[in-house]
Structures are given as structure tokens and as C-alpha cells.
Amino acid sequence: MTKDWEKKMNFRMKSWSLVLSTFIIWEAIVGVESQHDYADALSKSILFFEGQRSGKLPSNQRMNWRKDSALDDGHQIGVDLEGGYYDAGDNVKFGFPMAFSTTLLAWSVVEYGALMGSELQHAEEAVRWATDYLLKATSNRDVIYVQVGEPYEDHNCWQRPEDMNTPRTVYVVDKDHPGSEVAAETAAALAAASLVFRLSDPTYSSTLLNRATEVFDFADRYQGSYSQSLGSAVCPFYCDFSGYKDELLWAAAWLHKATNMQSYWNYVMSNMNTLGWTQGYTDPNYVGPNGEFGWDNKHAGIDILISNEFLNLHDAENADPFYSCADEFVCSVVPESPSKCVEYSPGGLIFKPGGSNMQHSTAISFLLLVHAGNLIRTNKVVHCGNIEVSPSRLIQVAKSQVDYILGSNPLGMSYMVGYGNKFPQKIHHRASSLPSMDNHPDHIDCKGGTPYFQSQDPNPNLLIGAVVGGPNATDGYPDSRDLFQQSEPTTYINAPFVGALAFFKFHNFL
């Protein structure tokens, strides 16, 4: 298996060189120059994850204004659930978005890790912080601890994670209370991460993969939604709206990629009709293409992951129908496409209704880059009606989103904290907005942080690398903690952004 993996990595390196060479040719033709320091942005985007850490912090912690927190998580039920990530600006550990962030961060490393240079080690550390926790959360067979923290009481307080004394309630899915979407996403995260460590730590990689197979088996055998099993504990925070079938296929696809076992491919092929692939996107049972990919909806990710894997293996036949569906996803996103179903702000940012809009921009950009590589390897273009979309055009669209986030926008503002000279100062994030333990060692109680939340002063602690929810549909950004839809960072915004930045960082040094 290791030799097969090395062959795949060598093939991918050649593919990356081909993709990036094409990008250089395209850039020379249209006369575009790089405006941003992608290496600096990459470093910061990975550093952000250190600011989201829960648990006992390591001696090499670089975000040193953060301190140990939630050390007793799980102890009330006799389980060690210390560690993991806070998903956003609160102090709850939500398992569904944490697992998805882990999958996308691992995919970023698998796809573009060789382009990260010295940042690869930090990226692997960021993945491992999550997977160490996910191993704990799945330590009892047919049981997954999917959330720590009572969300309503947590959101009623403005406290540092180091101080929090709200209930650390543990929420569980099991055979009597199923949660296939969160279980399958956890399996996908463990399988994807096993690829990250296959060469650097094969023992750990095997541990992750073995656990991934067990967790997937549980997700499949006891099917049901955690939205129903756990109700208001997860809804409306991370309620599953698209159903759990996509997560099951997503996990099976990652397990096939990690194991090469025919059984997982058979699972995908025998179950894909539940999502409408057999009839294409005209099937009324399928919700896409809708320019969507994120913690709730995995359809586009499945298409591009599977087509990418089989094209890497020179097996174009098995890439269909996923390859054609990936093309349809492209047509739902590219600005000039007649079937585009996302909006663009006047300044050029992909915009979809709802909060945390940057999650769409970063995730879609990552998928476009991966699919651009697919198109280059097969010497193909995408046809959206009578519009022809080349792989270099996909790279251009992805670059426009990355550059917008980094400051090429009407406000001239970077939406990554700590990057550039102008960036959000009042992000919706408890630890960042409250004085650090070093500067204020006394306890701050539940409502003791309210004056800091209401203050018009900048946050005292820079959450370096955090990408916030972003501007509104007309490119406006008021920089207000109160407008959490715009000012709150999340792990699932940053995770795919790591891969996109690695791609463009490598270009800068060619």
C-alpha cells in the first residue's frame, strides 16, 4: 500500500507542475501579476487553528495568548474528551463542523501538501490536533461523542474559554440515537487524515484508518439523522438540512481513496442513485447543482474527489458520472455560465444567502482548483451551454476569490486577521475580544465579558489568520462584533483556504 501511495504522490507532483505551468502561461497571456504574499497568508491561515484549540496546549504553542481550557471535558461521564477545536467564536465543540473542517484540512494537505514547504509540518499538526480528539470521541464502539458544551447557555455568556463555567454537557449518538451524517463525516475525516500521515507516521495512519472503517460501519448500519436524535442541541446551530446520504457516500469515497478496497467503490456505485447521479442533475430527488459545498452538503465534493482519484489512476471510465457532475457544479458557479446559481457582489465575491459567506468562497475556490487539475490531465474543458470554460479560467475564478479575501476588494480590506495593513479589528470571538489571562488573570464570569463585547475598541488579542464571515452582498463591512454573520471566523472557512493558498504560494516561487 505504501508503494502505491508513493506512486500516487509522484503522479500528483507531476500533475501539480502541469497545472501550475498552465497557470503561468495563462497569467502571461492576460498580463496579471500577483498582488499578494500567499506564503505569508498560508502561514497565518494555519496558525489560526492554534487559536481555536481546546484542551491542554503544547509547549510549542505559537498563539501564546491562548491558555489551557476545558481540561475536564467528558469526565462527568467517565470519558476523556479533552482537546479538539472550538468551531468558531464560541466555546462549544460541535462535532459535525469539526469533522468537516478536519476532512477539508486533510484534503488540502493531501492535494497540495508538497507545495507548502516548511508550513507542511504546521498543517500536519493542525490535522493531528483534530484527529487526536476524534479518536477519543470514537473510542467506544458504536458510540460517538459528537458535541461538548450546552449551546444555549454557552451563547448566553461572553467568556474566555479559559474561564468558562457553563455546562460541558456531552451529546452522544449511538445505535438507539443514530447520527449518520456526523458519524460518516467523522469517518471521512479519519480516512482523509490517514493519508496525510501515511508516509510520516504509518502507525498513526493505520490507527486512523482502522477507526475510520469502524465508524463508517456504525454510520451505515444505524442510519438516521442526528438532527432528529439530538434535536435542539444541534438545531439550529448545525442542523443537517441536506440529509445524511451524502455524508455516507462522502465517507465511502474517502475510504476507497485510503484503502483501494473494491467494497467501498461498490458502496458508492450501489447507493449513488439515492442522490440522483444515475439520472444526472435532472433527477427530482437531487438538490443540485446549486453552487453549494460545505459542512452540510457534500455533493460537489464527492463528484470532484472521485473524478480526481480515478483520473490520477488513469481510469477515466470510472470517473463518470462524477466527472460530468463536477462539470455541472462548475457551470453553477462560473460567472459567465448561463446556469450560474450563485450571486457575485459588485466587487466580485461569491455570495450566497445566510451567514458566514466566506465559507462558500473558500470551499468553492478549493474545488475549482482541484477540478482544474482534472481538466488539464484529461486535456478537456467544461461546456456550460454555449460557453467554453477552460481550466485556466477555473484557476482565474479561484484566484479572484483568494485575492478578494486578501484585500483586492472595494474596501481595500483583508478579511484575514493579521494579513495586510487593514483587516477586521472587532471580530465576533470571545477569546480574541476579552483580555488574555496574561493581562487579566482574574476570573471573568458569564456576564463579566459583556462590556468587552459592547466596546467599540479593537480586540486586544489578534487571532492571526482568522478569515471572518465577510462583507455583505454590496461589499460593505461594518466591523462589528454584534454582526456575527459577518465578523465571526470559523474553522470550516479556513480549512479549504489552506489548500488554495498553498496552490498560489507555490506559483509565486516558480
Written account of the structure:
It is a single chain. By secondary structure, the chain is mainly alpha-helical. It has a single domain (2-508), classed as Alpha/alpha barrel (Glycosyltransferase). The chain has helices spanning 2-30, 38-51, 95-112, 119-137, 151-155, 180-196, 202-221, 226-230, 245-259, 262-271, 299-312, 316-319, 322-331, 358-378, 391-406, 430-433, 450-454, 484-487, 491-508; strands spanning 93-94, 143-148, 170-174, 343-344, 350-351, 382-384, 387-389. The strands form three sheets. Strands 1-2-3 form a three-stranded antiparallel sheet. The chain has a two-stranded antiparallel ribbon with strand order 4-5. A hairpin with a 2-residue loop joins strand 6 (382-384) and strand 7 (387-389).
What is the CATH top level name?
A: Mainly Alpha
Structural class: mainly alpha
- Looking at CATH, which topology would you report? Glycosyltransferase
Segments where pLDDT lies below 50 for 5+ residues? 22-32, 277-287
The second-level CATH architecture is Alpha/alpha barrel
Query: Shape, please?
Result: globular
Helix fraction bin:
40-55%
Largest sheet: 3 strands, antiparallel
Compute the average pLDDT: 90
Using the CA coordinates, give the radius of gyration: 21 Å
Number of helices: 19
Strand content: under 5%
The succession of helices and strands, N to C, reads HHEHHEHEHHHHHHHHEEHEEHHHHH
How many distinct beta strands?
7
Q: What is the terminal-to-terminal distance? A: 32 Å
How many structural domains?
1
Q: In which order are the strands of the major sheet placed?
A: 1-2-3
